[in-house]
Amino acid sequence: MTGTGRNVPLCMVLGLFGLFMIRASGDDSPPGKLSSAPHHDQMRQLQEFKASLVSGSAISPSPSPQQQVVSGSRVYHVTDYGADPTGKSDSIEALDKAIADAFQGPSEGVLMEGISNLGGVQIDLEGGNYLLSKPLRLPAAGAGNLMIHGGTLRASNDFPADGYLIDLSSTTQEEMKEGSSSDLNSELTSSSSSYNYEYITLKDLMLDCNYRGGGISVVNSLRTGIDNCYIAHFTSNGILVQGGHETYIRNSFLGQHITAGGDAGERNYTGTAINLMGNDNAVTDVVIFSAAIGIIASGQANTFSGVHCYNKATGFGGTGIYLKLPGLTQTRIVNSYLDYTGIVAEDPVQLHISSSFFLGDAFILLKSINGVANGVSIVDNMFSGSNKGVEIVQLDQSKAPFTQIDQVVVDRNNAKGMNIKATVARGSTEGNGSSWTVDFSPVLLFPNLIKHVQYSLSSSRDGVFPNHVLRNVSENRVVIESDVAVPANVFVAVDQSLST
Ligand SMILES: *[C@@H]1O[C@H](CO)[C@@H](O)[C@H](O)[C@H]1NC(C)=O
Ligand SMILES: *[C@@H]1O[C@H](CO)[C@@H](O)[C@H](O)[C@H]1NC(C)=O
Ligand SMILES: *[C@@H]1O[C@H](CO)[C@@H](O)[C@H](O)[C@H]1NC(C)=O
């Protein structure tokens, strides 16, 4: 009981410290929830200024009387707007019109400040297959609680190669950036929130990018759900998340080429299935079957669970999950399946990888940028390979050696046909003499680093009580010496992971 009582304040201190770290990094990292606050204020000031020039009614356009009379369903069927469900003719205008009408409906209060609540309005694709010549975008920022679901969208042969089939960026903000600040009304209908959208759900969709551009782009939005989507034939990103937070990608399938593995064209895979340039997102129960990189994360505090990557194999230059956020990682990868393709983490600081399965010599690479590895747990995973001596966890120190190593635990993993690497190890040796050496260099992850040693010397020779001492731990080799020669067994436990 007293132990528990003592631990509580320590946890709180650690919690506050973690918060401080996030804030400290917020300014130079990709736009995230914490660094966006000044932008929010700017937007609100801009809006207040404009509102003083123009009548307040322009801020939220009131629905036309005709639309108020229609008090029926809030499900918008795209074929009612002339969309072609056979996929033969371009349906972008019809879909744009359906979404524009959905935006005109009654708004029921707000979600986040400046985001109007569309009340759960649905764009129903009615099981059709629609050709798009341009990205599908929402008409204005500052709205939420809308769902698009139930059909296929396919990029046309002249779809912009840098576009996304569904683009949740803010059209109004881009127009503002392009400098036409004369149109006050269009600026005033733009969001006063620092987020473009909140609670947009994209569900039960197949997105065929037709090797032109990407599938879904979520820019500076909040609580976006991507659920049961199949995204294929992308060349840039299957899903791009930029800024904002809490985009939840779940129960989905992504691949550049449609294959079930062992594809002859695997070496040619390009593109990234999921690109997370933002904080606090989750990817759960997702299969990535072809892409050069399965998931790349450059924002903090993302979590991956139940991800099966069999995109381009590591041996062909591919990566399953790439954590490109050196210095503050805060990523959890659990219960995932890295299938011939591994994980790369640059200068990991707070990284947890557990309960995952690595097949086909797939391994974890810690890549040094400034030599930092701190708070890393790689535990309770299974590795399976082909007896080529591939190590389960490897270091890339080509740029800089790891010099700031603290609280790195690689332990309790099992390997079949691969070589175990760990930060804790046990060994023993026996001999008749005054010096015993146990060499841990084949198993310890970091070269020349032992922070803690325990040993015992056991001798069966009657009547002799030798003095003995730990003499040397250099190069991961533990040397024990005694003052007299004795036949003895020496047992040694070493640890590289202790906090300094
Ligand atoms: C891969 O790309 C190369 C060069 O672009 C091409 O020659 C080859 O046919 C492609 N292989 C497959 C299987 O698509
Ligand atoms: C150990 O070595 C000594 C000589 O150095 C020898 O007398 C003794 O029998 C050896 N003991 C064993 C158990 O081999
Ligand atoms: C420890 O061993 C290394 C070689 O492994 C040697 O260079 C070094 O001098 C030794 N240190 C001591 C104190 O004996």
Automatic annotation (TrEMBL):
<dbReference type="Pfam" id="PF12708">
    <property type="entry name" value="Pect-lyase_RHGA_epim"/>
</dbReference>
<keyword id="KW-0732">Signal</keyword>
<feature type="signal peptide">
    <location>
        <begin position="1"/>
        <end position="26"/>
    </location>
</feature>
<protein>
    <recommendedName>
        <fullName>Rhamnogalacturonase A/B/Epimerase-like pectate lyase domain-containing protein</fullName>
    </recommendedName>
</protein>
<dbReference type="InterPro" id="IPR012334">
    <property type="entry name" value="Pectin_lyas_fold"/>
</dbReference>
<dbReference type="InterPro" id="IPR011050">
    <property type="entry name" value="Pectin_lyase_fold/virulence"/>
</dbReference>
<dbReference type="InterPro" id="IPR039279">
    <property type="entry name" value="QRT3-like"/>
</dbReference>
<dbReference type="InterPro" id="IPR024535">
    <property type="entry name" value="RHGA/B-epi-like_pectate_lyase"/>
</dbReference>
<feature type="domain" description="Rhamnogalacturonase A/B/Epimerase-like pectate lyase">
    <location>
        <begin position="78"/>
        <end position="316"/>
    </location>
</feature>
